[in-house]
Design goal:
The protein is built from nine helices and 16 strands. By secondary structure, it is an alpha/beta fold. The two termini are 24 Å apart.
């Protein structure tokens, strides 16, 4: 960590523009990709993760690693972990399983909400006044209109979504009362894999897996017999649910832009998505085309609470952050995810020397760990 530096946060003798960031939950899927992108941009990165669902080997080479929770930042043992040498915090530390949150809501309130409260207190004490928060489209619940805009009603249908919305409200109060500069990024469906500058490949790992693209890829790998299609009678062109998918590399880029887009005293909330919807059958057919493997389907009843269509309006992110997805095609997302899945499961090869196991985390919301959101 640096203790002194030039006006832009770089230490003497370092490139101008080099800054120091704390990434909570940086051993998970989205957190590890963002940490890798920050390093590739020339910044110093410290990852804080308790490894409850993340992976130590997912922490990018070049990042400092601290095994611990965000709650540790305000404990006597954690004194000095967060100090004024940091320019900002990127907060991915959260649990993110919807079903688990319904069965064990107190776990989500204690960790997602209580943990963020401790993080904000530590930032206030250290004088760190910039935050990018990993939020989620689950804050909207079953949308009243499509595409979903940030001004639409928030009515989460699970304790997970409610905990993320509570954190958004908490951050808004911190900005108003204490001048924090903060951006909440509400993800829709995140997928794909990221190749860092050093050749390391970061992809999606969940145990158990619940997200569509990696599940369908497991069928293509021969690890599952079929993929379940939950409902084929929705009011959509092919009868299956439609979702907005975004490439994890595009998602990471939005976080870097948000660091510069945050303004003191303002809490900016931005949706991140393609603005285009792909149905369950679109995903299955794209996996067949990309992999060249058959993917048998199994019909299953609708799941309660599944909206017919969930697509984001990302105009605010375009206007305020200058963000636009560079890889909006479903085939690109599936192709990169397939490369990672084959390498991870020994069914293919990775061109990069030194490719490392990526972290686990949400495909929908950048968390999935106690110290990663």
């Amino acid at each position: 960590m640096h203790t002194s530096g030039t006006r832009d946060g770089s230490a003497a003798g370092e490139p101008r523009g080099r800054r120091t960031y704390l990434v909570t939950g940086g051993a998970g899927y989205v957190g590890s990709v963002v940490a890798a992108r920050l390093l590739d941009a020339g910044h110093r990165v410290t990852v804080l993760d308790d490894l409850s669902t993340g992976h130590r080997e997912a922490v990018p080479a070049g990042a400092r690693f601290i095994e611990g929770r965000v709650q540790d930042l305000t404990s006597p043992a954690g004194a000095g972990l967060l100090d004024g040498s940091y320019d900002a915090v990127l907060h991915f530390a959260a649990f993110s399983q919807v079903g688990e949150s319904v069965a064990d809501p107190e776990k989500y309130w204690r960790n997602n909400v209580g943990g963020t409260m401790e993080l904000l207190a530590a930032m206030r004490a250290a004088g760190v006044r910039r935050l990018v928060f990993s939020s989620t489209a689950a804050t909207y619940g079953d949308p009243e209109s499509v595409p979903v805009a940030e001004t639409d009603r928030t009515a989460p249908t699970s304790p997970y979504g409610a905990s993320k919305l509570a954190v958004d409200h908490m951050i808004g109060g911190e900005c108003a009362a204490h001048g924090l500069a903060a951006v909440s990024l509400r993800y829709f469906n995140v997928a794909g894999a990221h190749r860092a500058a050093d050749g390391a490949l970061y992809g999606e790992l969940h145990d158990p897996e619940s997200h569509l693209i990696p599940l369908v890829l497991r069928v293509a790998l021969g690890l599952r017999e079929s993929v379940s299609v939950y409902g084929d009678d929705y009011p959509t062109p092919d009868g299956t649910c439609v979702r907005d998918y975004i490439h994890v590399s595009d998602l990471a880029e939005a976080h870097l832009l948000a660091l510069d887009g945050a303004a003191p005293g303002e809490h900016l909330i931005c949706n991140l998505g393609n603005g285009n919807g792909f149905s369950v059958r679109d995903v299955i057919e794209t996996v067949r085309e990309v992999t060249g493997h058959p993917v048998p389907e199994t019909a299953a009843p609708r799941r309660p609470g599944d909206p017919s269509v969930l697509v984001a309006s990302a105009e605010r992110a375009h206007d305020r952050l200058g963000w636009k997805p560079a890889r909006p095609g479903l085939a690109d997302i599936v192709r990169d995810a397939w490369e990672f899945a084959r390498w991870r499961n020994g069914g293919g090869h990775s061109d990069a020397a030194g490719s490392r196991t990526p972290g686990s985390g949400p495909a929908e919301d950048t968390s999935g760990r106690a110290a990663q959101a």
